[in-house]
Amino acid sequence: MKNAYLYFIERILPSRISYRLALSYLLILCLFIIVVVRSVTQVQDVSRRSQEFASQDLQKLLQVQNLALDIEGSTSALVLIFNATQEKRKPAYDAIDAKKKHIDELIQKLSAESDDEVQLICLQRLAVTHQEYRQSYLNLFDEIELDNPDGAKQVFETQVAPARQAFLSESNVLLDLAKQRIQQRQEEEQEDLERLKLQILAISVLAVLSGIVLAFITQSSVVQPLSMLEQSALRIAAGDYGSKVPPTRTTEVAQVSHALNIMTDAIASREAEIEQLAYYDSLSNLPNRTRLLRKFEQQDLQHHAMILMDVARLKIVNETLGFGTGDTLIVETSQRLQRALSHHTDTMTFLAKFSGGQFALFCAAKPDSESNTKRLVEQIINDIKLELNVPVQCGNYSVDVNLVFGIALANSETKNLATLIRNAEVALYAAKEHSETSAWYSDAQEASRLGHLSLLSDLRSAIQNNELQMWLQPKIHLHDLRCYGFEALVRWQHPQRGFISPIEFIPFAERAGYISHVTNWMLQQAAQTLASWQSRYPHLSIAVNVSTNDLRDQQFPERVRHLIQQYQLRPENLQLELTESGIMENPDNAIPLLQTLRATGIGLSIDDFGTGHSSLAYLQKLPVSELKIDRSFVIDIDQQDSTQKLVRTIVEMGHGLDLHVIAEGIETQAERDTLIKLGCDSIQGYFASKPLHGNALEQWLQSLPTDRA
To answer: What percent of the chain has pLDDT over 70?
Structure first.
């Protein structure tokens, strides 16, 4: 039934809502016009009938009544004749004749105007009884004229009275017929009025019902579709983009539905793009950190593991071969990780891509237990390493892929997934710090991390409060065993923790980006010391170690020049020691900065030479004046022929580049003597002197030969 109704609505009615509304209003208007026209027509008909009633039926009734009165009048005239004299009878006869004539005219007129057969028959009988009555009173007149009272009385009683009575009876019948006709006409008019009422009521009811039906149809064809559109809009607002607005023949609704469906698809497409950007890595299409956290924010972490993996040497690949090669390396790595995980379909694994070259794997064994999850992690790491055995082909280059793994296993103290990720990051940093391929998170790592955080805050205070100390280790010429300068070494005497080794806080300060403050403090101390030596030790120099961060700072040469001017130093008395790795990290920027520094007149020294990744092509471009051979090349050099050959080569190469060559870490006389034979220029180490500070330094300076002071 409902389907049939809907079929009627959709198929029979016009497709446009405006046409349906116009049709509804037109139909209701037509019904009211019919009511008005019908009412006016009926009123006009009633008015016409009323006029006819007034002009015809009432006139007939009056005529019939006049006829009855004339009959009564003629009868009264007959009574007067009995008592009248001869002279007075003549006017009475004339009056009776006039009445008779008038009665005949009335009967004739009524007969001519009447259309009622019963009335015509009654008029005919009335005319006959009238003639009989006339003949009877003419006989009466004859007896009266013969002066025969008894005969006249007899004629009156036997002829006139019965004829008169018959005449009166017929006239009364005629009068009753006239009254009945009038009453009938009145009843007919009343019936017409009742019918008019019923018709107007029926039309009005029909109009109301039509209005209700049209309102229901409008509601069905307009309001319901609009309600359907409203529900669809609410579903869209709630994020349900799958359900479409069903088609309809209603043009306006169909247009809005079509637009709404287009809008739904557009919103769904844009939201999918936004979700892709918000929750997925654009390069590898893997879920990102936000997606990982949201997906497992309510996850029970018991016996779950987080593996953070970082692509080793990605920065070098980007800088050397370009970021396109680095992107290819990341994409290929993500694909190989997924292939490695395809062997573990019976376990819970979720691979995500973090920033840079970092990947995260959230996993758990089935059945879950700490031992099973540990075994799973080891199996996954082995499978990943097998997948990464083959180098990645990036254009014309073949690049080896190595990952560093940081692993954290959830326990009762792991609050949420973010905490588990942080623990894995701590383990990853620990693996990098110790040059290992993988590391499991431990409480000791957390304690070390927290200790480093507090050290950073303390280091700031130490610089401000002069808690740092500058220790100086002498540099000795081998040809005369005399001191020509010192290397400045920073030491930290913490007020609560005591002595803190540079090995502990210097690397941390470099990672935290705070090493430049330490460098500035050391330069300030070196400048002050050199200024105080100008009169006593004008030929002694101090070398300050410079970090990689300092070589990135384009304002660094200006600060050094300002110090030289501030303390009125001889530029050659201040030296800067640079590491190979710091220079080679970005040689295109480092070399111009070093040239600017060399232009101030200070000396530049390459520290720990041989342990980095120096390029000879770059070495000859560097504006340095000194090479420092690393300690690893001089340990037991007197006993190592191969090492001696290597050091001789380095010394000869340095001399070929007009560089002063110094070996550091010399601890024995045998090592010193061997270096003298190899042609090395200077040495530095415990054999010459330990790092000195305060009174020990002052005493050592006072022991120097006066001719070099």
So the answer is: 81
Edge-to-edge strand list for the sheet holding 358-364:
348-353, 358-364, 305-311, 403-409, 438-440
Domain 289-441 classification at class level:
alpha beta
Among residues 166, 164, 167, which one has the least CA distance to residue 107?
167
Provide the token pair at 120. Answer: 């015509």
Measured between its terminal Cα atoms, the distance across the chain in Å is 119
Adjacent-strand bridge partners of 545: 577
682 DSSP β-pair partners: 477, 662
From 573, 518, 583, select the one nearest 548 (Cα to Cα): 583
Half-sphere exposure of 593 (CA within 13 A, CB side): 24
| Other residues' Cβ atoms within 10 Å of the Cβ of residue 680 | 26
Q: What share of the chain is helix, strand, coil (3-state, %, to 5)?
A: 65, 15, 20
Rg (C-alpha) for the chain, rounded Å, is: 66
Task: Give the residue ranges of DSSP H helices in 146-160.
Answer: 149-155
Dihedrals phi, psi of 480, to nearest 5 degrees: -135, 5
CA separation, residue 300 to residues 304, 377, 526 (Å): 8, 18, 57
Contacts 24+ apart (CB under 8 A), 590-598: 590/551, 591/618, 591/621, 591/622, 591/623, 593/551, 593/554, 593/556, 593/557, 594/551, 594/622, 594/623, 594/624, 595/623, 596/557, 597/556, 597/557, 597/560, 597/623, 598/623, 598/624, 598/625
- Record the tokens describing residue 545, joined without a space: 């170690």
Residues 173, 200 contacting (CB under 8 angstroms): no
Residue 17 has pLDDT above 90, yes or no: no
Q: Residues in the chain, how many?
A: 709
700, amino acid identity: W
CATH architecture of 451-708: Alpha-Beta Barrel (3.20)
Strand pairing category for 305-311 and 358-364: antiparallel
Q: State yes or no: pLDDT of 266 exceeds 70.
A: yes
450-486 pLDDT per residue, tens: 555 566 677 777 788 788 899 999 999 998 889 999 9
* Res. 515: pLDDT tops 90: no
pLDDT for 708 beyond 50: no
Locate the domains of the chain by residue range.
Answer: 12-227, 289-441, 451-708
Sign of the alpha-carbon torsion through 325, 329, 330, 334: positive
Q: Is the dihedral of CA 111, 117, 118, 122 positive or negative?
A: positive
**CA angle at residue 509 from 503 to 513, to 5 degrees?**
150
pTM listed for this prediction: 0.49
- The count of other CB atoms within 10 Å of the CB of residue 554 is 11
Helices and strands, counts by H and E, the chain:
25, 16
3-class DSSP state for residue 696?
helix
Taking the C-alpha atoms of residue 223 and residue 203, their distance in angstroms, rounded to an integer, is 27
Asked whether the beta carbons of 611 and 639 are under 8 A apart, the reply is no
Tokens of 564: 């030289």
pLDDT in tens, 365-409: 888 788 888 999 999 999 999 998 888 887 777 888 889 999 998
